């Protein structure tokens, strides 16, 4: 009987993709009372450019490598070479998604802080 790792990995991957699809760096809700729309759009674009400096790709890659190493080690300890490879793959997905999610949250926070710094009342 084959271990259920491929199904577990598929479920983790799907869940990760769904969570990452929900995160967006341009989701900022501002009280627009007495706000010049043209200036708001310019400030938002500037702040998004600032938030884009957060390295989500690098963080995701680091998380994937760390997850793969940890998963491979655990698989080797508790199973065989097949288990180690499966666990390494799962660890890479989970580690990469975790780091990318953290970087995405940091990006969102940078965007909100930037908009607050420009005098907007950020509601979310």
UniProtKB/TrEMBL annotation:
Keyword Signal carried by entry: yes
Keywords per UniProt: Signal
Domain of life: Bacteria
Endpoints of the signal sequence: 1-23
Protein name: Glycine zipper family protein
Taxonomic source organism: Alloalcanivorax marinus
């Amino acid at each position: 009987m084959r271990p259920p790792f491929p199904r577990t990995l598929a479920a983790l991957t799907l869940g990760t993709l769904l969570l990452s699809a929900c995160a967006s760096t341009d989701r900022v809700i501002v009280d627009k009372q007495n706000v010049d729309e043209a200036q708001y759009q310019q400030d938002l674009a500037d702040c998004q450019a600032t938030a884009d400096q957060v390295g989500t790709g690098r963080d995701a890659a680091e998380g994937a490598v760390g997850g793969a190493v940890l998963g491979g080690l655990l698989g080797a300890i508790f199973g065989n070479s097949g288990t180690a490879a499966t666990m390494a793959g799962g660890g890479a997905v989970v580690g990469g998604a975790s780091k990318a999610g953290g970087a995405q949250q940091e990006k969102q926070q940078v965007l909100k802080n930037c908009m607050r710094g420009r005098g907007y009342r950020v509601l979310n």
